[in-house]
Every structure is written in structure tokens, then in C-alpha cells.
TrEMBL record:
Gene3D superfamilies: 3.30.230.10, P-loop containing nucleotide triphosphate hydrolases. Residues 210-392 form the AAA+ ATPase domain. Transmembrane segments: none annotated. Belongs to the Mg-chelatase subunits D/I family. ComM subfamily. Coiled coil: none annotated. InterPro entries: AAA+_ATPase, CHLI-like, Mg_chelat-rel, Mg_chelat-rel_C, Mg_chelatse_chII-like_cat_dom, P-loop_NTPase, Ribosomal_Su5_D2-typ_SF, Ribsml_uS5_D2-typ_fold_subgr. Pfam families: ChlI, Mg_chelatase, Mg_chelatase_C. This is YifB family Mg chelatase-like AAA ATPase.
Length: 502
């Protein structure tokens, strides 16, 4: 009886766990048996791995082979284990030296001819190996740039099973990742492209400065989508840690570029209005994959024509908006994905949507039902609401609109002031601050918050809405360089909540 061992990584959500793969070559009829809760793709790896080994010039054992993946209670999903499975069998057959193998994590899918193919989730898998204290990891060379985003662990890329075997035997040297750069490219158009709409531009600036959610309504062609697309250009670049978080999610979704995988700017995700709940929050068979809310993590989720989106899909946003993450239970386990994003909603005022509101032929009940797709609890989480109006004929002859660079500088200054203020409490933006903190540690004079108290007393504002209006007031104060909001800032924040009549 011969026993071999290799190691790989099981990824669940954005987290990974080291998987030990043991190969036992014993007596019995020739065959391969995999145990340890494998899924269909992993069960099929028996034939892939055997063909890859023989086509690479190695001998496959002519007897019974048992492959055990541990922890045995952890579901194993996908083809990422192929390379480790092959190495465990060859180790059991004493065809490879054990010195390097026992300290190396192996990732990658094998083709029948022994080529090493890329797999999803390489970045979170390498992070898991590093956090578990492993010295080195071997990945397909096509994912070398992605794996190289992780520091503190030796990373090698291989093109085939032959390359890995030659490296383990000391015959060749595998290449490591090259130097990576952080060239931040601002995409999405410039704010100077938007003609007129001073009020909407101001609302967009407030939303960017405080990480507040935004709602835009108005007739078609007025510039709602243009404004939404320019919000990422007003936001500061992602930090190193945020870039790794966002890139790991996009790695699991299979959306990374092979040449320059690191995402350094806030992502902009705009799902179609026919998207399902699974497409929005994540899902799929086996282990759930990230949805639109997770792909928009640290960026912007834009829902155009939200009045056409299903009610269940819209209501599924409530938990991510409140918790900043989604938990999806499926057959193979519970996947946890971060989902801290800025939400932008846009819609026409009614189904017929004429250029002039006076030409609308919709009944009042139809108009109310059209924009009433958002429930009270969901719309209460939207801090800035703007009703856009058609520009006058003089709008095209006005002076040059302000560009994104100028607005971005003010946003950066406001965010810096907010980050300094909330640093000891663990927050970075006004939109993330809790209501109790604002009311206790940063209590404002009553004459300043009197409009909020009056709105609550008259039933026009909920307690949660008051907290959110207070956060917007702090953002307005940061934009004008004040140390604290005054009554005027609170009034402006309330004005943002009163713009849309539902």
C-alpha cells in the first residue's frame, strides 16, 4: 500500500479553506474512487486527471486508487483540484520528490493533454493559502497576474502538468509574476458632458461626497443615465485593501482581465430591468456565485427604469443595503459575499413618459402605481431624491459646465474631513455612520435639528429617515468646509427627501 498527499483550496464566497488530498494506491480492480463530498465536476475529474497524467508521459497506477479530500464534511466544488489530484497520485507512486510538494498549494484544471487551464477564484484561493501560512502556490500561467496581486507568498505559474513535474524534480524554474502597477484610469465620461441640471448635479455631488443612495426621476432623454454613469468618476480611487476585495469578487464571477486584473476604480454595475433575484443578489446551483450587488461592492449599482423591475427583486436589496453583505444558502453550503455599494435609482415619471409632463395621458392612479414599486422601507433608505426637469432653450448657450475633476476635488476634501471625524469609530463616510452615534456623540443643538423633529411629529419622516437626513446634513457641511451642520444644512437635507411625491 502506497499513500501520497497534495494540497489545494476550496473557495466558499470570498473565503477559502485548505483541502488536503490523499491518494491511496492499493489492491483491487483498476479504478479511481473520489470521496469527500465531490460535486459532478470533481467526480468527472477522474477521467481528466488520468488522461492528463498518461498523456504527459507518466505512468498511471494499474490498480485501485482512492482519492480522499479532507475536511470530509466540506463540499468540494469545481475543477480547481485537478492538479493536486494528479500530484497526490504521482506522489503515492513515488514518481515525484516530496520536499517541494508538501509545502506547495496547487491550483488549476487539467486538460486531457496535460495543459493547465485557468479556474475562477484564483485570487481568494491564494489569499487563503497565504493566511493559512503556506510558503508557495502554483497556478496556471494564464492567472499568474491575478495571483501575483497577493504579497507575502511565493507564486509560480505553469503551463502544463509536465512543467510542474519538471519543477518539482528540480529540472526547470517556473516563472513568477511580474511587477504590477497602479495606473488609475477614470472612466465613465466627464460631468461637463451634462447640459444644465444644476440641481441634479448638486445632488450627485452630495451623494458622492457622503456615499449616499440617490434617486432620479424625470422624462426620457433628460440625462438620468448620463449623471449616473459619471458618479464613479467623482469617487476616490480604491485603497489597496478595497482593490483586493473587489478584484476577488470579480475573480469568482470570471470577469477579470488576464493582463491587468487589479480593479483600482469603483465598479459601475447596471443590470437589466428584467434581472431576477438570483442575478441581483447571487445564486446558481451548487455554490452560489456573486450577483450584481456584490459585483458593485465599493462602487455603484445603477438600476435604470426601476419601475419596470419586479417587486421581489427590488425588495431583495433591503438586506444588502442594511448589512453590506449577502448570505446565500445553496445545496453545497452558504456563500457570504460583501455588498457595500451606492445605489442609484432612475425612472420615468409615468408609463407614457412624454417629454412634457403636461402631455401625460396616464390616470393619477396609474402614475402612483408606476412609481410605487418601491416599498416604504426601501425608499426610506434612499437619502437623496431628485426630480429632474427639462432644460430651457438657453441651456445650450450657457457657460461651460463644471468638469468632473473640479467636483472630484471637492468630494475628496469632504470625504477626507468625514474620515478624520469618524476614524476612531471605525467609519469612513457619512453614509455609513450609525444613528445612535450621531445623536449621542455628535449631538447638534435643538435649534439646528428642529426641522427634523417637526417632520417626525407631523408623520412626514420616520426615525430612520431622520437619521439619514442628518447624515446628508453632515455631508453638506463637509462640502462647504464647516465643522458641523447648521439649520440651513438640515433644511437642504430634508429638501432632498421631499423632492419626489410618491
Amino acid at each position: 500500500m502506497a499513500l501520497g498527499r497534495a494540497h489545494s483550496v476550496a473557495v466558499s464566497g470570498v473565503h477559502g479553506q485548505i483541502v488536503e488530498i490523499e491518494a491511496d494506491i492499493g489492491r483491487g480492480l483498476p479504478g479511481v474512487h473520489i470521496v469527500g463530498l465531490p460535486d459532478t465536476a470533481l467526480q468527472e475529474s477522474r477521467d481528466r486527471v488520468r488522461a492528463a497524467v498518461t498523456n504527459s508521459g507518466e505512468n498511471w497506477p494499474d490498480s485501485k486508487v482512492i482519492l480522499a479530500l479532507s475536511p470530509a464534511t466540506l463540499p468540494k466544488v469545481g475543477s480547481v483540484y485537478d492538479l493536486a489530484l494528479a500530484m497526490s497520485v504521482l506522489d503515492a507512486a513515488e514518481d515525484v520528490p516530496r520536499a517541494k510538494l508538501e509545502k506547495t498549494v496547487l491550483l488549476g484544471e487539467l486538460a486531457l493533454d496535460g495543459r493547465l487551464r485557468s479556474v475562477r477564484g484564483v485570487l481568494p484561493a491564494v489569499l487563503a493559502a497565504k493566511n493559512a501560512g503556506w510558503q508557495r502556490v502554483v497556478v496556471p500561467d494564464s492567472t499568474l497576474a491575478e495571483a501575483g496581486l497577493v504579497d507575502g507568498i511565493d507564486i509560480f505559474g505553469a503551463g502544463s502538468l509536465r512543467d510542474v513535474l519538471a519543477w518539482l524534480r528540480g529540472e526547470v524554474v517556473l516563472l513568477g509574476p511580474g511587477r504590477r502597477s497602479r495606473n488609475v484610469v477614470v472612466a465613465g465620461g466627464d460631468l461637463s458632458d451634462v447640459v444644465g441640471q444644476d440641481e441634479a448635479r448638486w445632488g450627485l455631488e452630495v451623494a458622492a461626497a457622503g456615499a449616499h443612495h440617490l434617486m432620479l426621476t424625470g422624462p426620457p432623454g433628460i440625462g438620468k443615465t448620463m449623471l449616473a454613469q459619471r458618479l464613479p468618476g467623482l469617487l476616490p480611487p480604491l485603497t489597496e485593501q478595497e482593490s483586493i476585495e473587489v478584484t476577488a469578487i470579480h475573480s469568482l464571477a470570471g470577469l477579470l482581465s488576464d493582463d491587468n486584473p487589479l480593479i483600482m476604480t469603483p465598479p459601475f454595475v447596471a443590470p437589466h430591468h428584467t434581472s431576477t433575484v438570483s442575478a441581483m443578489v447571487g445564486g446558481g446551483s451548487g455554490m452560489a456565485r456573486p450577483g450584481s450587488v456584490s459585483r458593485a461592492h465599493r462602487g455603484v449599482l445603477f438600476l435604470d427604469e426601476y419601475a419596470e423591475i419586479g417587486t421581489k427583486v427590488l425588495e431583495s436589496l433591503r438586506t444588502p443595503l442594511e448589512d453590506g453583505e449577502v448570505r446565500i444558502a445553496r445545496r453545497d453550503g452558504v456563500a457570504i459575499y460583501p455588498a457595500r455599494f451606492q445605489l442609484i435609482l432612475a425612472a420615468n415619471p409615468c408609463p407614457c413618459a412624454p417629454p412634457r409632463e403636461a402631455d401625460c395621458v396616464c390616470a393619477p392612479a396609474v402614475r402612483r402605481r408606476y412609481l410605487g414599486k418601491l416599498s416604504g422601507p426601501l425608499v426610506d433608505r434612499v437619502d437623496v431624491r431628485i426630480k429632474m426637469r427639462p432644460i430651457g432653450s438657453g441651456g445650450f448657450h450657457a457657460e461651460e459646465p463644471e468638469c468632473s475633476a473640479d467636483v472630484r476635488a471637492r468630494v475628496a476634501a469632504a470625504r477626507s474631513a468625514a474620515a478624520q471625524r469618524w476614524r476612531e469609530f471605525g467609519f469612513r463616510t457619512n453614509g455609513d455612520v450609525t444613528g445612535p452615534l450621531l445623536r449621542r456623540e455628535f449631538r447638534l443643538p435643538y435649534k439646528t435639528v428642529a426641522p427634523l423633529d417637526d417632520a417626525i411629529r407631523r408623520g412626514q419622516l420616520t426615525a430612520r429617515g431622520a437619521d439619514r437626513a442628518l447624515r446628508v446634513a453632515w455631508t453638506v457641511a463637509d462640502l462647504r468646509g464647516a465643522e458641523a451642520p447648521d439649520a440651513g444644512d438640515v433644511g437642504r437635507a430634508l429638501g432632498f427627501r421631499d423632492e419626489i411625491r410618491r
